[in-house]
């Protein structure tokens, strides 16, 4: 089997808001098709957003509607990435623990409530 594209798809009640968020994070554009949006980056499909009118956001980490998948996004500059995702509508679910060596991460929710992490190597942030 040859896989042409690998796409992660999110359910959302507001697919316009959700697809704009991921297009902003990934530096892509939104291609709309009724109840399905595709975020395309450099001509390659990356994230799909499917209309789910009854979507209930997961309540991370232990709520009655638990997460089923999340993205880890490894970034070069955490402070810059944090500002960008917050401006796009993310909210912090769990602050970074403040590791002084190795790696660290901070947990966020996108506009539809799907958890994702910004991850980085701590040594990279001291340059």
Characterise this structure:
There is one protein chain. The chain has 127 residues and is an alpha/beta fold. Helices cover 17% and strands 36% of the residues. The chain has helices spanning 15-26, 78-87, and strands at 8-12, 29-33, 36-41, 44-51, 71-74, 91-94, 103-109, 115-121. The strands form two sheets. It has a four-stranded mixed sheet with strand order 1-4-3-2, with helices on one face. Strands 5-8-7-6 form a four-stranded mixed sheet, covered by helices on one side. A hairpin with a 2-residue loop joins strand 3 and strand 4. It starts with 7 loop residues before the first strand and ends in a 6-residue tail after the last strand. The mean pLDDT is 91.
């Amino acid at each position: 089997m040859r896989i042409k594209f690998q796409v992660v798809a999110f359910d959302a009640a507001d697919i316009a808001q959700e697809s704009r968020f991921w297009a902003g994070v990934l530096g892509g554009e939104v291609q709309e098709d009724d109840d399905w949006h595709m975020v395309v980056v450099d001509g390659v499909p990356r994230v799909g957003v499917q209309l789910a009118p009854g979507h209930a956001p997961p309540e991370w980490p232990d709520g009655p509607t638990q997460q089923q998948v999340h993205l880890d996004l490894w970034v070069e500059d955490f402070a810059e990435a944090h500002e960008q995702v917050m401006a796009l509508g993310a909210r912090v679910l769990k602050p970074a623990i403040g590791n002084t060596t190795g790696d660290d991460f901070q947990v966020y929710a996108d506009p539809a409530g799907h958890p994702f992490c910004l991850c980085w190597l701590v040594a990279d942030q001291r340059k």
